[in-house]
Amino acid sequence: MESDDSERQKKLEAGKEKLKLFQKKKTSTGTKKKKKKDRSSTSGSAQSPSPGRERRRRSSSQDRAAAKIANLEAALALEEKVPKQDGEDVEVEEISQADTDRDAPSIASELGSPIPFDAEQEQNSQSGSYVSGSEYTSGEEYSENELKNRTQELEEELTAKKAALKQISRENADLKGKLELMLQDQSGGSVIKDLSRQVEEMRESLQMKQSILQDINKENQDLRAKLEQGEQNKATPNGGQVEELKVNLNAKQKSLDELNKRNEQLEAENVNLKKQLSSPQGVALQSDFSELENLKETLVEKEKALAKLQSENNELTQRLKSSRRR
């Protein structure tokens, strides 16, 4: 341990001596240059350097000397601050004259020269663009990227439209389910359905009765015309023809009586239905019927919206296909 400390101390002393020698050398070279300058000025030579050139030389040499001194002092200070580790030898790096020359380049050195402005302009004048950091993208690649972005936007819009279509389909299914439940409900929907069926049957029977009455009236008119014609011609008809006419007339009269009875029954049923509708239960049924109509209208509106969204979906699909072809 003591030998290591002594060796380290020796190296530090050697470094300090080198620094002192270098400083002495600097002062001696400065005095020599001054004496040489005095001799050249007294000799009156025509080849003496200009004052500006002499200042540049002096400043460059002073800068190099200052850099060397700074490097030596930094190395010595670093060496003194380095702690000694157990089991390891701490070596002091000897700084030579070549190291100091390399660490302090001259002002006119090409290593420290900046990039010319013309070269920078040439680099910046290249065609294309930079996308996502330093990645270079040409004009064709930029248009392709733009097309891809547009395609992605269309796909996202198409996905949103499909989601809206699914939502509307679910709402339509819910409305249809509610409508079926109302129709199956014994308290309201089934009664409304039964009443609607009775009204339709009554309308059909009335139409049938009206057509039958028209046919009977036509046949009666034909029979009367034939009788009147026979009386005018004073022709005595045969007994068989008279009996046939009587039978037909009686049959028609029976049919007419049956139709009148059926008409009376239907009128009575109509009166009963009106009474039922005017009762509190009928008022409740009317409200259920109005709600049923509202549901039907809502269903129609939803189907219209669904058709509109489907048309927009088809249009977006066509646009997406055309953009991909490009």
Automatic annotation (TrEMBL):
Residue spans of biased composition, Low complexity class: 41-51, 67-77, 127-140
- Chain residue ranges for the region called Disordered: 1-155, 225-244
Q: What is the superkingdom listed in this entry's lineage?
A: Eukaryota
Compositionally biased region (Basic residues): 21-38
Q: Which residue stretches does the UniProt record annotate as biased composition, category Basic and acidic residues?
A: 1-20, 78-87
Indicate what this protein is called per its UniProt record: Uncharacterized protein
